[in-house]
Amino acid sequence: MKSIQHKWWKIAGVIILVYVIAGGFLFDVPAFPVIQQSIRNVYFHVGMWFGMIFILLISLGYSIRFLLYRVPEDDMRALSAVRTGLLFGTLGLLTGMIWAKFTWGAFWVNDPKLNGAAVGMLVYLAYMVLRGSVDEEDKRGRLAAVYNIFAFVLFFVFIMIIPRMAAASIHPGTDGNPALSVGDLAPEMRKVFFPAMAGWFIMAWWLYSLLYRSTRIDHKISELKNN
Amino acid sequence: MQLSEVKAFIRKDLLLEWRQRATIGGVLLYLVSTVFVAYLVFEGLADLRTWNALFWLILLFTAINAIQKSFLQENESRHLYYYTLISARGVINAKMIYNALLMTVLGLAGLLVFVMFMGNPIASPGLFLINMILGTVAFSAVLTLISAIASGSRNNFTLMAILGFPLVLPMLLVLIRVSGLALEGAIFSPAIPDLLILLSLICITFILSNLLFPYIWKE
Fold it and tell me: Residue A5 falls within a domain, yes or no?
């Protein structure tokens, strides 16, 4: 019974996502000009980006904690969160590119929001390279945490300010918060959209905790080997 | 952190730069040869957009080259000695100010060489210069902390560029937009929001560097 209690949120997440995938493809959606049925992608594409931002915020939190208390586990948590975030970001880019191909006619268009997303991915890939090039564990943790905080703040200032300043963006969400303005969302889509966000958040958290556990075990194994 | 220690540290860096003239000479030569390569490749172009983009790209690469050495020039034991002498904030602020000065000088030199080879299409020099100085200050603010991070790793030369590019890119886009306006002879008012963005980015970078650097400096 105990294991069920631990797993209930994972089961809930799976059920929600099964509902989201089925409902996302089957339920009626309003007919939008140009976008048409591809609006269904909103459940997946937006979910990926929200999931990424959610998990990167967690990473930021653990990086700050690591600098304050220097517990190695916090660094592993930050790393696992960044890895999860990179996966979600890649999927967000891919779903976005497919969507862009069918609505804008090209996989990539020169748009401030798309470029912002690409820069964000570069930042976190650079974070991974930085981790790869420092051998000493505590130093690696500190440098990575400092870069994580520095990059996160600058990056979010960038994606908050620049699209608002830019003359035009064809990506929805003119106020700089794509898809956050719930008013844009047709009422019949909300019954899938909100569960979708919850489901992807749960999935992000689940993946992150799995990655964290495997990182911790790897770390323990290498510690035992060295002794 | 005291002002006097920042001043003394900047003085030390200036003196060091003067005694090791080859380093700064190397960066200057790098700047001149890049401009010359651009001149030969483009054969002196008239297109404003390309002029603008090329100028900023060259300045960006020069900045990365010049700032890279901030924490590499001197060895570990020297750093340990400074650690006992002055506070971490003193070090990072001194380095940022010093790099900003260095980059402003290099930027002006670069502009001179660039104008000599590629022609001078700048219609409103005042706006262009203010934007350029803000730009060099912004570059040095971001890249100083990055060079501190990169200096702790094995392949710091590649890392400096990888870590720096995505963070400098937003600033670069704003800078290129303003300098494009300056090239077309705009007055100040349309550029003011962009200049304010630059200023706020510099302030944020400055604050973050002050908050974060002590964690790197402590060994």
Answer: no
